[in-house]
UniProtKB/TrEMBL annotation:
Its main location: membrane. The chain crosses the membrane at residues 12-32, 53-80, 92-111, 123-141, 161-183, 214-236, 293-312. It comes from the Bacteria. It is a multi-pass membrane protein. Keywords: Cell membrane, Membrane, Transmembrane, Transmembrane helix. The keyword Transmembrane helix applies. It is found in: Cell membrane. PANTHER family: ABC TRANSPORTER PERMEASE PROTEIN YPHD-RELATED-RELATED. This is ABC transporter permease. GO terms for molecular function: transmembrane transporter activity. It comes from Porcincola intestinalis.
């Protein structure tokens, strides 16, 4: 165990140092010192990070394959809106509505995976199409208006607590463990890296490349559905605008965490740190009352910087 911990810190030393430096900076800046260093804000950051972490778990697998999933933000909106609509308009029991929302995410992911694995259409194009389809369906279903749900049972998943810990944080930890096991301890995890490194060689070695692509995109869709359930609960409503730009935060967390856009390399441990960096950065910018337009600029610079570092790393390997 201690060896694994040492390896983890060694592999992620750079981004861990960046996270610590960012936290220290926000802790000493006059504009953020009082608000940032508090238990309440700590749990608030983790609660906000949880949604992005779900997406980033699936996105990490997709990017290691050499693909990308642009549909996750729109799946959040569609899953959350349908879940809320089932509860409000059909008086459906909440657990069943949650299962339907998860099924929507899984279904869209399966569709993405099927098209990507059985055609030569790039994942970028396929998921760009489903991104627009899901967002459009969310607007059609709600008529462009939020579907509000104010019950205690509804808010528990996204805004409730289990003991002193926010419910989304508990769910996040469970998902991270499951994803880490898939990536590091299963045949599927080994196959994901093989396909991402060289799909043709992986196929020649007997790996079912189509199955791997299908399963990875399905998992990404399921994670987006889960993110939709949690976010809708936290906002007390299903909103067709929910998840707008969420795919960019997920990609940012994955790339900042060290996953190569070229495919074949990356680990969920790095993605965790990447998601925390994006979450702390968002939190710090909000505490400093930075205009939301400038926040997009800052995150864009962070993504570009991370991709450039990845470029330099790959260049040095050649």
């Amino acid at each position: 165990m201690s060896k694994n911990i040492k390896t983890y810190f060694h592999e992620n030393a750079g981004i861990l140092a960046a996270l610590v430096a960012l936290c220290i900076l926000l802790a000493i800046l006059p504009a953020t010192s009082k608000s940032f260093v508090s238990t309440r804000n700590f749990f608030n950051v983790l609660r906000q990070v949880s949604t992005n972490m779900f997406l980033a778990c699936g996105m990490t697998m997709v990017i290691i394959l050499g693909g990308i999933d642009l549909s996750v933000g729109s799946i959040i909106a569609l899953a959350g809106c349908v879940e809320a609509g089932m509860v409000v308009h059909l008086n459906m029991p909440l657990p069943l509505a949650i299962l339907i929302a998860l099924a929507i995410g899984l279904g869209v992911g399966m569709f993405n995976g099927y098209v990507v694995s059985t055609t030569t259409i790039p994942a970028f194009i396929v998921t760009l199409a489903t991104m627009n389809i899901c967002r459009g369906l969310a607007y059609v279903y709600t008529g462009g208006s939020p579907v509000r749900v104010m019950t205690d049972a509804w808010k528990f998943i996204g805004a409730g607590y289990i003991g002193p810990f926010p419910t989304p944080v508990i769910i996040m930890i469970a998902i991270l463990i499951i994803t880490a096991i898939i990536m590091n301890k299963t045949k599927l995890g080994r196959h994901i890296y093989a396909v991402g490194g060289n799909a043709q060689a992986a196929e020649y070695s007997g790996i079912n490349v189509r199955k791997v692509k299908f399963l990875v995109h399905s998992y990404s869709g399921l994670m987006a559905g889960l993110a939709g359930v949690v976010l809708a609960s936290r906002m007390y409503s299903g909103q067709p605008t929910a998840g707008d730009g969420a795919e960019m935060d997920a990609i940012a967390a994955t790339v900042v965490g060290g996953t190569s856009m070229a495919g074949g390399s990356g680990k969920i441990g790095g993605t965790i740190v990447g998601a925390l960096i994006i979450g702390v950065l968002n939190n710090g910018l909000n505490l400093m009352n930075v205009n939301s337009f400038w926040q997009y600029v800052v995150k864009g610079v962070v993504i570009l910087g991370a991709v450039y570092v990845d470029f330099l790393r790959n260049k040095n390997k050649k």
